[in-house]
Write a structure and sequence with these properties.
- It is a single chain.
- This protein is mainly α and 207 residues long.
- Helix content is 72%, strand content 8%.
- It contains three helices and three strands, in the order αβββαα.
- It has a three-stranded antiparallel beta sheet.
- A hairpin with an 8-residue loop joins strand 2 and strand 3.
- Helix 2 runs antiparallel to helix 3.
- The chain is rod-shaped, with a radius of gyration of 40 Å.
């Protein structure tokens, strides 16, 4: 009787041992989406490491095997997506300031345009008058001082025009800055979308 019991016990041990030694090919293949029960458990399959966890991309997901690459990409995407509202608020604030600057520069540009037109008209009058004085070669010596004054006046008006032109350059720069700020946020949005697509691909069932 004792011998029979011993043989039965030995047989049970051998059967249990053979079950725990089933090769991966004979067991359920571990891959993304395959159900698991122990959170945090890890295993290797097909050269990849898998962890028993809830899919960060799926709300109220159940425990499944997920590759470590899947988990890393999913959490990276979620962090980037969570940062979007703050980035949007910062972008909106920057654009609001630039819009105010643009409005002010447009006013200055309009004023400058009036002044520049006036300066250009005066330059033309002085240039014409100066040309006549310079053409009067017989009286060049007598007209030398006036010619010099005219030349100086022309240079001064040209300097004033260059000074007024800065408003147009500032307007152009502010408009470019606004486009860049808006474009940067759009790029961030696109990158978040790309990261989601990549994470979904890597995390797809069966991978």
């Amino acid at each position: 009787m004792f011998r029979k019991l011993s043989l039965l016990a030995l047989a049970s041990v051998l059967v249990a041992g053979s079950l725990t030694a089933i090769p991966a090919s004979a067991a359920t293949k571990v891959s993304n989406g395959v159900a698991c029960s122990k959170a945090g458990a890890t295993t290797k399959s097909g050269g990849a490491t898998y962890r028993c966890a809830r899919n960060p991309l799926v709300k109220n997901s159940k425990l499944t095997w997920l590759s470590t690459d899947c988990i890393s990409l999913a959490f990276a995407h979620n962090r980037s997506r969570a940062a979007l509202p703050a980035a949007k608020a910062k972008t909106d604030a920057a654009i609001a300031k630039l819009d105010a600057d643009i409005a002010n520069w447009k006013i200055e540009v309009a004023k400058a345009a009036v002044d520049i037109a006036d300066y250009q008209a005066k330059i033309k009058l002085i240039t014409d008058a100066n040309a006549k004085l310079k053409a009067d070669t017989a009286n060049l010596a007598a007209n030398a001082l006036q010619i010099q004054k005219f030349d100086t006046a022309i240079r001064n008006y040209e300097t004033a025009i260059r000074g007024k032109s800065i408003f147009a350059r500032n307007l152009t720069r502010a408009e470019a800055d606004k486009r860049n700020v808006a474009g940067t946020y759009q790029n961030v949005q696109a990158e978040v979308g790309t990261a989601l697509s990549m994470a979904r691909l890597i995390c797809s069932r069966g991978n």
